[in-house]
Amino acid sequence: MKAGAGLLSAVVLFLLVGAVWSQRPLRPKKPTKRPPSSRRPSVPRPSVPRPSVSEPSEPTDLPPVILGFPDIYEDCPKVCTCSRNYPSALFCENHNLREVPVIPGRTHYLYLQNNFITELTPEPFVNATEVRWINLANNRLHRIDKQVFERLPSLLYLYAQRNQLKEVPAGLPTCLEQLRLAKNRITSIPAGAFNKMGNLTLLDLYHNQLSDSDLPKNTFRDLSSLMQLNLAHNVLKKMPPGVPNGVIQLFLDKNRIDSIPKQVDNTINTYILDYFAGFSHLAFLRLNYNQLSDKNVPKPSSTSRLSWTFSWPTTTLICAHVQQSPGAPAPQPQHHRE
């Protein structure tokens, strides 16, 4: 009995002690200090001025070259397209080319327009001696090696408009029939550039920078077959001398021509009245947007078939047309304008 009472007392005492202990205030924990960082403090770097780089005049990052489609012709350049239906044609236009690829010997018609070609060298034409037609329009040509034409004895048509040429290419093939050099930067024609070119029928020098001093009287002397001459949009102040008498279409608009001479040397040491008296085939003439007026234009002689028409005020000659002889069919001029 006594043992049970003692056990009960011990249990009660334990509970009382536990209750008192639980009511003691807790000691606040001391904040733990972080160890000092081992990193060095950042020191601001002095700014170094960068050298100024001027912007290029033209974009230097050209688009990538476009490859052509696989073809059955093993000699077809990868950057061009060959057609089974046109085995003599090589299509390299609109391919972002920087240079001319090696041209297969079977090529007669070469399309190179709308690229980024800067010069024409003879190497790609080693085997291409039968090329008759080349289109180089809208590139960045600034030089054409005259040796190129030595390897192109059959070339008949050369189109190189909208480029950066500063002079008419030298060494042109004598068999050439059409030469288009419109919208370049041509300021000179080398002496003898058109010598022995009796087959040339079309010469387009529209929108260049040719002046009177660039057209001596013998410039067009050998162009006996010339039918169309385009000298519009240059800086001429005088009528060009030595124009072949067989010309059918003559474009001289958008120059600075202020008069038409009453007498002109026709390159054979004799003088003829009226600049146009010897042009028996002239059917289309443009002289608009010059500095002509009815005071500085001589009246056509009785041998001339031209009649003038002026705008108002009479400071610009807008057109001149040929009076055809009775019963003669009116010629249909072909407009080759840019």
TrEMBL record:
Chain positions covered by the region annotation Disordered: 26-62
Where is composition skewed (Low complexity) in this entry? 50-60
Instruction: Alphabetically list the UniProt keywords.
Output: Glycoprotein, Leucine-rich repeat, Repeat, Signal
Which intervals carry biased composition (Basic residues)? 26-37
Q: Where's the LRRNT domain?
A: 75-109
Pfam families in the record: LRR_8 (PF13855)
Question: Does the record carry Transcription as a key word?
Answer: no
Listed GO CC annotations:
extracellular space
The UniProt transmembrane annotation reads: none
Q: Which InterPro entries match?
A: Leu-rich_rpt, Leu-rich_rpt_typical-subtyp, LRR_dom_sf, LRRNT, SLRP
Q: Which SMART domains match?
A: LRR_TYP (SM00369), LRRNT (SM00013)
* Keyword Glycoprotein assigned: yes
Which residues constitute the signal peptide according to the record? Answer: 1-22
Q: Which PANTHER family match?
A: AGAP008170-PA, PROLARGIN
What name is this protein filed under?
LRRNT domain-containing protein
The source organism is Mugilogobius chulae (yellowstripe goby)
